[in-house]
Amino acid sequence: MRMASWLARRVGAAAFLLWVVATVIFIAIRMIPGDPAEAIMGGPGSQASAEALETAREQYHLNEPILVQYVLYLGQLITGDLGTSYAQQRPVAQIMAEMLPATLQLTLISLAIAWLIAFLMAAIAARSSRLGQAMGTVIEVVAAAVPHFWLGAMLIIIFSTWLGWLPAVDTGTVQGIILPALTLAIPLAGFLAQLMRDSLVTAMSSPFALAARARGASEGQVFFRHGFRHAALPALNLTGWAVATSISGAVVVEEVFARPGLGRSLLGAVLSRDMPMVTGIALFSALIYMVVMLLVEAVEAIINPAAARGHDV
Amino acid sequence: MPKLSSHLKILATAVIGGLALAGCGNTDSADGEATGEPQSGGTLTYASGDAEPDCLDPHYGGNYPQGLIATQYLETLFTKDEDGETIPWLADTSEVSDDGLTHTISVTDGITFHDGTPLTSEAIKANIEHLQDPETASSTGFLAVEKVEEIEIVDELTADLHLSAPDNALEESLSMHWTAIQSPEALDRDVQENCADPVGTGPFMVDSWEREQQINLVRNDDYVLPVESDRENAQAYLEGITWRMIPEAATRYAALQSGEVDVIDNAQPDTIQSAEDANIGHLDAPRPGASNRLELNSSQAPFDDAAVREAFMRSVDVDGGIEALYFDTAPRSHSLLSSVEPLGYSDDSLFSQDVEQANELLDEAGWTERDDDDVRMKDGERLEIVMPVSTNQSVPAEQSLFEQFQAQASEVGFDMQINLLDLSSWYAELSEHNYDLVSAPYTKVGPSVLRILYHSDSIEPAPSGYFANNAQVDIPELDETLVQAEETTDEDERAELYEQAQQTVLEGYYVLPLYDQQNHFLYSAEVQNMGETSAIAAPEYYNVWLDQ
């Protein structure tokens, strides 16, 4: 029963947050200069006739008072209707459904690679000398700080132009996803590795690790049973943030590698003032973030019920 | 090949392309010359740096990327020959009444659309009405057929176009792919369907569209060449074209180098230069219509004073800037019109740099005081000029050129501010008149673009706020000349009037011409016979083959 009420509270909070996000998006979009009717009738610089603009305003309720528009907008969202893209004249939900798999694939593969790299880096750093640790720190900081744009361009130059090993543009093949995924994963790995290494070092020299060693456990056993489990928790905590970063990083990576996806759709929509598309993708990103946070919290609660109740371990 | 000789206008543009290449010193193997017997087969992969079109029907909206791809599957009533003369294409004959108010156009017999609908005069009517229908949301094509009031079907192949005023540019307008002829039956479908799969008569057809990934074009095996002499066996060599969108210039070039794609557009000056060393071909196809130029807003201070406008133009070193930033890929223009426009008029005496004269002009105009930053002042006003720059339209080299102007103009006491903006914000700044100078490209076939850009009617904004006369030239005599030039039926008078109009604008220092609207393509060594372009300077792949 306690689980059910916990879930109800969390879902309620998430719904409230979504409403706040939807409202902020609504207000922000109304504050952007430019006539939405113009965006509907062929984009910026359109020379649409007065008649055409009026038709568009009628169709999209742009002549209604702002509050009526807001109510209509919320009403639409509640029924799950994200509206029609101004630019493509197709339902936003349909476009997003087409683009989602590509972004999801990219994000998940990147997350997996980032975790793997972070784990290896942390493990190596935690077990090396002071100098090794210092070098590890430098690598992590640099990795975490490189912009996706630059990293993507460098990877293309090295692996595509010079070595000719991998394609520069992603055509849906297995080789095609390697460079985009690495571009997204490397900065993320830098962050995660920093976090994991700190707690790994702490854990490996903590009393329970000493005790385990005293019991005769090998260094490897200590590392995996105690050190790693301990170190993974703070990084796991950051998974919600990591997913959000990956989605925003996807905007750049999809553009650089000419991959289809939500990020590229979002960029195009912002540039052409395609407001229903912008709204749809922004809301969806917020939703994903909340769902991931909820899942992370649930997993943590299962791993460590004490922490979930607010007590320290 | 009879196919080549019959395709006259195509050969012609290849020659023009060849000359441009020679001018660029680009002498590698892939210069548009076929090296052997053409081979059929293979799919060409094209990578475009433009945003993906929202709609593959160029009637809808009507921007350049739509024209680029529509050139492959749609055809126009008219086109351009080697001298830039307008000649019939899908049209068979064309006559104008003495009063210039009726154009009688007949279409070529025996041509069918990709859906099997035969090409008849009904298609002319259906297409022009489609362009004029507000539901189509056409802007480029809409303007092109603005003067057509009524289309009357005369017989199966002939239609009369009744105009509200004479328009000697109508045939040029109908040579642009934004007015291309589509199957009337296909136009009856809903907008979304027609956008995804427009139906024309071209050598290729739209097969499928994977959004944000690629558009797949396949060969039209039933293609009929509108030119009488060789209409059979007229299919293209290529089996199809894969049309990809690769927005990043560096990625696009890397993909060309590694052989992932065969042709790229929007090639940048530095890339064109490095392509010379690689085994990569270069097609330079300047767009028709206006040149790329700075327009000085004459409706407000300080550029309402012609002397201040001249002072600005004398203060900057255009030639040096272009040479340093464009590596000989963009020859300097001294004309309002593109170098492909036969009626373009040039005057290079007006625009040479002369800092001393610039200073004198400003002194005489009363801008004599200086503030602490050494910016000139007059009656307490600073000599400040604002330039919104669209990062979508001005490539990095052009942005750098403007920054050089900024530094040079400050030497004589201008405070020039450059604002880098996305396209929507840029248009918003223009419609709110927050600009003193601006670079706004305009593509249209023929000199009638001059009326759009410099007639005082074009100061009046469209309902969307858009207006084309950014220099805000407002001279009644010029208006008259431009209208006359468009209405006369006499070719020589037309040329003379347009020259007069161009002189007036150039000598009034409203516009600083820079270079043609850049339109560069790079292609791999396998691509043969590249260089043929449509009236809007979009490459055609009808005669292109792959040396595999």
Report what the structure shows:
The complex is a heterodimer of chains A (313) and B (548). Chain A has 14 helices and no strands. By secondary structure, chain A is an all-alpha fold. Chain A has a domain at 99-273: MetI-like (MetI-like fold, Orthogonal Bundle). With 548 residues, chain B is of the alpha+beta class. In chain B, helix 11 packs antiparallel against helix 13 (355-364), helix 12 runs antiparallel to helix 14 (396-411) and helix 17 (476-487) packs antiparallel against helix 18. Mean pLDDT of chain B is 89; it is low at 1-32. At the A-B interface, helix 2, helix 3, helix 5, helix 7 and helix 12 of A face helix 5, helix 8, helix 9 and helix 15 of B.
Q: What's the end-to-end separation of chain A, in Å?
A: 24 Å
Low-pLDDT ranges of chain B: 1-32
Number of strands of chain B: 23
Which chain pair shows the most residues in contact? Answer: A-B, 52 and 50 residues
As a percent range, the share of helical residues of chain B equals: 25-40%
Mean pLDDT of chain B: 89
Percentage of residues in strands of chain A: under 5%
Strand content of chain B: 15-25%
Radius of gyration of chain B equals 24 Å
The CATH homology group name of the domain at 99-273 in chain A: MetI-like
Instruction: Work out the oligomeric state of the chains in this entry.
Output: heterodimer
